[in-house]
Amino acid sequence: MNRFLLLIQAIAALAVGCRHSISQQSALLHVKVVAAKVDTLPERMTFIGTLDSNFDAVIQPRVNGYLLSANFKSGQPVKRGSVLFTIDPAQFSTAMLAAQATLESAKAQLAEARNNYERAVPLARINAISRSQLDQYTATYKATRAAVQSAEQTLRAAQLDVGYTELRAPIDGIVAHSAAHVGDYVGPNTQFEVLTTVSSVDTLTVDLAIPMNRYLRLAPAEMSLYDNAGLLSQIYLLQADGAQYPYEGSYAYTRKDISASTGTLVFVVKFPNPDNLLKPGQFARVRAAVGKAKPRVLVPQLCVSQMQGVNSVWVMAADSTVHYRRVVLGNTFEDMWCVEEGLMPEERVVVSGQMKLRDGMKIIPQSR
Question: Sorting pLDDT into bands at 50, 70 and 90, what band is 4?
Answer without folding.
Answer: low
